[in-house]
Amino acid sequence: MRSLVVLLLNLYLLAVLGRIILSWFPVSPDSPVASISSFFYAITEPVLGPVRRVLPSIGMFDLSPIVVIIGIRILIGLVGGGSLF
Questions:
Q1: What is the extent of the structural domain holding 56?
Q2: Residue 85 lies in a domain
Q3: Residue 85's pLDDT is what?
């Protein structure tokens, strides 16, 4: 059971990282990458959105993915019993 939770947390971590990387590039709405980008957005925004609303804004930088990544790594360490980083 623990390994399943750790696997799901790692997959979510990859989705957050994928969203970060795709946000650096312009994506045309009719490209195949647009569906991947919208998928990452749909599964990560329920977590990133509330974190973004709580954090103070720092210009144009969005720090919510950093906070979520750190939180996921802490959860993986707690659930998996391994090291945090």
A1: 2-80
A2: no
A3: 53
DSSP reduced 3-state for 58: strand
**Domain-embedded: residue 9:** yes
- Distance between CA atoms of residues 31 and 41, nearest Å: 16
Collapsing DSSP to helix, strand or coil, 29 comes out as coil
The structural domain count of the chain equals 1
Burial of 14 per CB tally in 10 Å (0-12, 13-18, 19+): exposed
Please check whether residue 30 lies inside any domain of the structure.
Answer: yes
pLDDT in tens, 27-77: 898 888 999 999 999 999 999 999 999 998 788 888 999 999 999 999 999
Backbone angles phi, psi at 60, to 5 degrees: -95, 5
Q: Give the integer Cα–Cα distance in Å for 13 and 54.
A: 20
As beta bridge partners, residue 58 has 61
Among the listed residues 20, 8, 25, the one whose alpha carbon sits nearest the alpha carbon of residue 63: 20
